[in-house]
Amino acid sequence: MMISTKGRYALLVMIDLAQHENQGNISLKAISERQDVSMKYLESIVSLLREGGLVVSTRGKEGGYQLARPSTEINVNEIIRVTEGSLALMACSNCEENVCNRADMCLTQPMWQKLEALIEGYLSRISIHDLAMGAV
Known about the structure:
The chain is mainly alpha-helical. It has six helices and two strands, in the order αααββααα. The chain has a two-stranded antiparallel ribbon with strand order 1-2. The longest helix is centred in the C-terminal third of the chain and has 16 residues, at 109-124. It is elongated, with a radius of gyration of 17 Å.
């Protein structure tokens, strides 16, 4: 598992929105300038975040983005899943039905599944608020 720039920048967007949570709509231009990430790339990221129900957008002169829920209620695991998809470490655990022909005799699969559960559990306990406040 490797988190791409899309996942890392999505975290930056969400942290930025959390830091400005009480300021109304935040323009993508402002986020782009503060985070030093191109507007074009951020557009694709916020689109995923909006589709995933993590941000809401408003059009118009006073438009921009806001968190869909309080920053204390949005965790890192949600953001990574929306932007990256699966957090699976092994291809054989990346699908609903295990298609590996060695699954019946694989002695390492339980270990990978437990490690994935630990990672998900850890990321689920970290809110965007925690990151925005430097509390991690």
